[in-house]
Write a structure and sequence with these properties.
Blueprint lengths: L1 E5 H7 L4 H16 L8 E3 L8 E5 L4 E7 L3 E9 H9 L1 E5 L6 E5 L1 H6 L19 H6 L7 H5 L4 H6 L6 H11 L20 H4 L2 E3 L3 H9 L2 H4 L5 H8 L6 E4 L6 H15 L5 E5 L2 H14 L4 H4 L2 E5 H13 L8 H14 L7 H12 L7 H6 L11 H20 L5 H14 L7 E5 L6 H11 L6 E4 L24 E3 L2 E2 L4 H8 L5 E3 L5 E3 L4 E2 L7 E5 L2 H17 L7 E5 L5 H11 L2 E4 L10 E6 L8 E6 L10 H5 L4 H19 L2 E10 L4 H7 L2
Parallel strand pairs: 1-5, 9-13, 9-14, 10-11, 10-12, 12-13, 15-18, 19-24, 20-22, 20-23, 21-22, 23-24
Antiparallel strand pairs: 1-8, 2-3, 3-4, 4-5, 6-7, 16-17
């Protein structure tokens, strides 16, 4: 007998308390050992349109709904007795007449009631009047759902119905609603198991043994296997003549595409080496965890894929080639060296902060060695004009800085990349055949140069995934000037899988509809759609910090009472200075918290707190963004350190992006707080 779990079961399990989940898991382990079960524990669901729905007793209150035939046992749902039975009476398992995929669908009597909840507007035409019933069914829409689809007049109507449709049906309808013409899904022969259709594999997972069942319970459904939308799949499998980039707003699956791209390259090119990289250890660890989920059952492919933060890979390459470890100057020591050099050169009014930024963004980043190189360099993005005499003074300061670093035998990370770049250009064969880069919007100039040398201008050798709207670490620069042109090989994902329709709309108010990079490549948020609905985000400002902490504490308690687990809640603040306030709110609620440290699966029973920078790569069912105060975001410290007009604009941009990143970590619920008058960005968020 085949033993399967449906995504509807894992979704319902997640809403139970920890103690209830333990009871359910124990019952499921017993069922797997003996799928026929104890005769007294199975009870047929009366008044169900599907005669194969049965309930399994977990406790006096809890029931598991299973679909049981002679050859299959499918775990479908778990809840309190009455709610579980009602769920089963509203649904049936059937094979779609066109695609051949197994589907759990709502029965016709229920579907017919749904249009009554939609207020018909005579002035509006049906949203899908241009699509025939036959085509809707060919697209995989359940036959019972066609009347519901016909009643839809606008996007709001559609989102009211998303809970009544399989996810792939939502994706198809959202594409049709935005003017696209998606391809019809695959059709399988009638003699093929309907559970083996690609659409069915998104919802029903076969469990072969106890180990697989334990793994299934150890991670949510989306962590077991990562599915691709056709638009994502096309990018994963496409052959590119040069460097390529996929972009898209938060939650559109760029990381999923990067992971699948690395795996696809490994499958297509056996015995090759693939570097899957990003810019922080935390994000690299997250990629490692997700790759293990993706490669379950095919571990040998993973042997071809090396995952490291780019900085770590570059340092390791340096050590391997030169046989020594570079002595990297610390940020604090560099700052002191520059401050000292500024004092030793007379006749200038440059602040150490300006000199440090000029060093980091121009001299060190671009590997400038001579006065002539500095004199002639285009200071892209820096509007303050520097006459030649002023540049000469600055070069005297930089000469002292270089000399002091040499005297102490210190190197910058940029110099490591420079040395690696030279070493790579001396060898014919790159140590990796392909490099896939996630969060590419935060690559620095030296990192991009290093990657260009790794790629050696080979087809498919470089693949980047990133979103300009989430650039929070680097100032903009031209990729094209560094030899990496993505023109004609850049794509934008439009379907948001992680963030609800309401949260996406609210967060997008922080950013313009279109953002262009220095090379003129435009990323647009127009046409981006979310596949599920949710509550409107809440934004509140308070008279005192104590009032804010109390409100956040109450919100935590409210969410937990609603069934959200502690480790499904994230709280983010602008910087470490505000972490104490997040701690205080969690403590007041009576819960425990755990700070983000690298990447980890959130600890059971702990709310996760961290800074907005640490939010990258994480996602939670519910997110609180605290302390959005005046002078906190945008950061007053950063603003006070600005030395030229273009830097001020860049500070405001990256601070906006930072708040956007924090808000879009939320899947279902978002609560944004601060003390009056609040951040100036709050006005943008609440603007109608």
């Amino acid at each position: 007998m085949e033993f399967r779990i449906a995504d509807t079961f894992t979704d319902s399990l997640a809403h139970l308390t920890n103690e209830e989940q333990k009871l359910v898991k124990t019952t499921v382990f017993d069922l797997q050992i003996n799928p026929s079960g104890n005769g007294s524990s199975f009870h047929r669901v009366e008044k169900s349109k599907d005669p194969n729905f049965w309930s399994v007793r977990v406790s006096s209150d809890l029931r598991i709904i299973v679909h049981k035939t002679a050859n299959n046992l499918l775990l479908c749902y778990v809840d309190q007795h009455d709610e579980a039975y009602e769920w089963a009476r509203r649904r049936k398992l059937e094979t779609h007449p066109k695609t051949g995929a197994a589907q759990l669908v709502e029965i016709q009597e229920i579907i017919r009631q749904i249009p009554a909840y939609i207020t018909a507007n005579p002035a509006e035409k049906p949203l899908f009047e241009h699509v025939s019933d036959d085509d809707l069914i060919k697209y995989g829409i359940p036959v019972e759902s066609v009347p519901m689809v016909r009643a839809v007049q606008n996007e709001e109507d559609l989102f009211r119905l998303t809970d009544h449709l399989p996810q792939e049906s939502c994706e198809i309808l959202l594409e049709l609603a935005t003017g696209n013409t998606p391809a019809f899904p695959e059709t399988i022969a009638s003699d093929v198991d309907p559970f083996n259709h690609p659409d069915a594999l998104r919802h029903f997972r076969i469990i072969n043994n106890r180990d697989e069942l334990e793994q299934a319970f150890a991670a949510p459904w989306e962590k077991w296997i990562v599915f691709l939308h056709p638009a994502q799949k096309a990018l994963v499998e496409k052959d590119f003549s040069g460097p390529a980039r996929v972009s898209g707003s938060a939650g559109t699956g760029k990381t999923v595409v990067a992971l699948h791209r690395a795996v696809a390259l490994a499958k297509k090119n056996p015995d090759t080496r693939i570097l899957l990289t990003t810019f922080t250890k935390q994000l690299a660890n997250a990629l490692s965890v997700r790759l293990r989920w993706l490669l379950k059952g095919a571990p040998k492919i993973g042997e071809q894929i090396e995952i490291q933060p780019l900085k770590s890979y570059a340092l390791n390459f340096y050590r391997a080639r030169l046989g020594q470890k570079p002595n990297i100057v610390s940020d604090e020591d560099l700052k002191n060296i520059i401050t000292s050099a500024c004092k030793n050169i007379e006749g200038h009014k440059f602040s150490p902060a300006f000199v440090l930024s000029e060093w980091n963004e121009i001299v060190d980043a671009r590997w400038l060695k001579t006065w002539e190189e500095y004199r002639d360099v285009v200071r892209l993005g820096r509007k303050t004009r520097l006459p030649e005499l002023q540049r000469k003074v600055l070069w005297q300061i930089f000469t002292l800085v270089k000399q002091e670093l040499s005297n102490r035998n210190l190197m910058t990370v940029s110099e490591v990349y420079e040395k690696d770049f030279a070493l790579l250009n001396q060898i014919k064969t790159s140590p990796v055949d392909f490099a896939v880069v996630d969060e590419a919007q935060d690559l620095s100039i030296p990192e991009l140069k290093f990657l260009s040398a790794l790629g050696k201008n080979r087809p498919d050798s470089l693949f980047f995934a990133g979103d300009i709207g989430q650039r929070i670490f680097q100032t903009p620069f031209s990729w094209k000037q560094l030899g990496i042109s993505i023109q004609g090989r850049s794509s934008t994902l439009k379907i948001n899988y992680r963030t609800s329709h309401q949260i996406r709309l609210q967060a997008d108010r922080l950013l313009p509809n279109e953002i262009s990079d220095v090379d003129g490549n435009i990323e647009t948020r127009k046409g981006t759609i979310s596949i599920f609905d949710g509550p409107t985000p809440q934004i509140q400002l308070f008279a005192t910090k104590e009032d804010e902490i109390s409100a956040v504490s109450s919100k935590i308690t409210e969410w937990i009472k609603r069934g959200i687990q502690q480790n499904e809640i994230g709280i983010f603040v602008r910087s470490a200075a505000e972490l104490e306030q997040a701690n205080a709110a969690v403590k007041l609620s009576g819960e425990s918290c755990d700070c983000i440290d690298d990447f980890m699966d959130p600890k059971e029973g702990c709310i996760i707190i961290g800074t907005m920078h640490q939010a990258k790569g994480l996602e939670f069912k519910a997110v609180i963004v605290m302390s959005c105060d005046e002078d906190v975001i945008p950061s007053l410290v950063r603003i006070e350190n600005v030395t030229e007009e273009s830097d001020l604009a860049e500070v405001y941009n990256t601070e906006r992006y930072l708040l956007y990143v924090a808000c879009t970590r939320a899947r279902d619920a978002l609560f944004i707080t601060g003390t009056s008058p609040g951040s100036e960005f709050i006005e943008d968020l609440i603007e109608a």
